[in-house]
Amino acid sequence: MVECKTYNSREEWLAARKSYIGGSDAGCIVGMNPFQNNVELWELKTGRRKPKDLSENPFVQYGTDAEEYLRCLFQLDFPQYKVEYFEHNMWTNSDYPFAHASLDGWLTDMDGRRGILEIKTATIQSAAAKAKWQDRILDSYYIQVLHYLFVTGFDFAKVKAQLKFEYDEDVFLMTKHYHIERSEVEDDIRMLIDAERSFCEYLVSDKCPPLILPNI
Q1: pTM of model > 0.70
Q2: Phi and psi dihedrals of 81, rounded to 5?
């Protein structure tokens, strides 16, 4: 059974998330997060490491502040979807009791199919960084979407990415949209579920997993 809860405050929401594997954790587990590996995640989940405070990181803050407006723009640009969102949401699935999903929004198309809305912002500082977004989303974000698909059981995902360039005291924006059909990524979803289950066994046994270096 899939269930969506909402919490009264950010503090309650953050506390509830601690007992689950989340979308941003998934990339660490399979070596697709450039900022954190699976051992560091294990140390966080077992209380051996304290989480970093990113509240004053300007890139993180920009993404948080921009999300509301980008969600509204998505609704304007894609009126064929019903867009829903509640702050401090947390989705769980009884088939995967180790996982949760906190979504930027959820969609219903004209055929009644359900989908995930994932919103990303990125400040592009090199041609190489721009090229990574050319025809696909970043690997860590792809894994995050797979995680959300298996938790929610939804049919598809839409990713809205705003790429920001700063040059000569001016700001340039490029918006890209990506569509992922669940039916086309079922094999990847199953592999991710297996990887997350294996990681949870290390949490239960309090045994450190073998290190997986980020594959980026």
Answers
A1: yes
A2: -110, 140
